[in-house]
Structure formats: C-alpha cells, structure tokens
Amino acid sequence: MRLLMLGPPGSGKGTHGVRLADDYGVVHISSGDVLRAAIAGDTRLAGYVARGDLVPDDVLFKLLVPIMERAVAKTGGFIADGFPRTLAQAERAYREIGIDRHLKLDAVVSLDVPDDVLVRRMLDRAQQQGRADDTLEVIQHRLAVYCAETYPLIEYFRERGILLPVNGNQPPDDVYADIKEALDQRVTK
Ligand code: ADP
Fold first, then answer.
1. 7, 36, 113, 179: which has the fewest C-beta neighbours closer than 10 Å?
2. Annotated domain spans of the chain
C-alpha cells in the first residue's frame, strides 16, 4: 500500500496515517515528526517549524529520501503524511524518489475539515501536547501556508485520478471507516 495523506494542519492526517500503516503493514512517515526529531541543536531549522513556515526543500529531501527508501525496501510501501506538501515537492519526489513514477500511488487521501474546527482542535492539542507551533498566531499562518502552497496539490492529484476526498469533520472512527471504504472500492476496482 502506497498512500499520501493530504489535508490542512489539524485535519487528522497523523492519527489516521498511523492507523492505516498498522493495518496495511507499511511504514508511516510523517515529515513533521522527522523534522521535529531533527531540530534538536539546529536553530535555523527549528525557526522554520516554530514560525509555521515550510523548511527548504533541500533540507527536507536530505532527511526524507533515505527514510522513504528504507521504508520501500522493507515493506514495499508507505503512508506519507505531510509530504509532498507543494507542487515543487511532488515533482521532485517523482524525480528523486520515484513517487507515482515507478512507486505508483494507490491513492491520495484528502481530509476535509472547516477552518474553525481545525483551529479549535489545534488549540486543544496545544494544551495536551504543548507543541510550540500550536499557538493561535502560528496556527493561522500554517493554515495560510496550506491554502497557498498545499491546496493546489488536491487538483493535481484529482487530475491523476487518485484523489480520495474524505470528510474529516466526524468522530475519528467514522473518518477511518470512510477512508477504508473509499480505499476498498479503489483497490478492488
Ligand atoms: P501540521 O500538518 O499540523 O502543520 P506537521 O507535523 O505536518 O503538522 O508539520 C509541522 C511543520 O513541519 C510545518 O509547519 C513545517 O514547518 C514543517 N514541515 C512538515 N512537512 C513539511 C514539508 N513537506 N515541507 C516543508 N516543511 C514541512
């Protein structure tokens, strides 16, 4: 199973990505988790993430390419969460990693959630997890970055016929059931 999870910050890509990886026996790769693990001692990198800006593609690819390659070698698949996040990253992932070239994607799961719900979820998460980028100001900036940089990917993957839009504004088990149903229909088609 090779999937991309697409959706605004707070839409549940991570929650459902982990569960899908477990179900299908592939590796869940969260670009945000990879970056958060790499920022210790790297103040420049930490700055991008704390501000809610995208880190430069060279930094991202240097970290992610070996992880993606290991995942494919080990399990033949992956659930990529938070990556690619721009058209430029999608094109570079096609060239450098083979994503959707020889590593054909089964689907791109796109989680749809209204902005006011996203903001509320991230502010709640801030109280539980204390993520430095879950402040109102940074959340609003991350949503704006999503709109400008990531949203165009929805159309990009829709045109390729692999987009699976799912309503992410439901209880988690219902979202997951919808994802599975959409995937079952696609994979057995
Ligand atoms: P969210 O989707 O809730 O914003 P993530 O954990 O996916 O959370 O990302 C957190 C931060 O990590 C982003 O705001 C950005 O700074 C950085 N980041 C994650 N993925 C990428 C990416 N593909 N390209 C550039 N920066 C990224």
1. 36
2. 2-184
CATH fold, domain 2-184, is Rossmann fold (3.40.50)
Measured distance CA(15)–CA(82) in Å, rounded: 12
Kindly provide the b/e burial profile for residues 159-177, where b requires at least 16 CB atoms within 10 angstroms of the residue's own CB. Answer: eeebbbbbebbeeeeebbe
pLDDT score of 164 more than 80: yes
Task: Report the alpha-carbon distance of residue 44 to residue 158 in Å, rounded.
Answer: 35
Q: What is the number of the ligand 1 atom nearest to the C-alpha of 145?
A: 14
**Residues with a known catalytic role:** 13, 85, 125, 131, 142
Q: Please identify, by atom number, the ligand 1 atom nearest to the C-alpha of residue 49.
A: 16
pLDDT over 90 percentage in the chain: 94
Express each pLDDT in 68-114 by its tens digit: 999 999 999 999 999 999 999 999 999 999 999 999 999 999 999 99
Mean pLDDT, the chain, whole residue set:
95
pTM, two decimal places = 0.93
Instruction: Report the pocket of ligand 1 as residue ranges, CB < 6 Å.
Output: 9-10, 31-32, 35, 48-49, 52-55, 60, 82-83, 85, 89, 133, 142
Q: What is the largest CA-CA distance in the chain?
A: 48
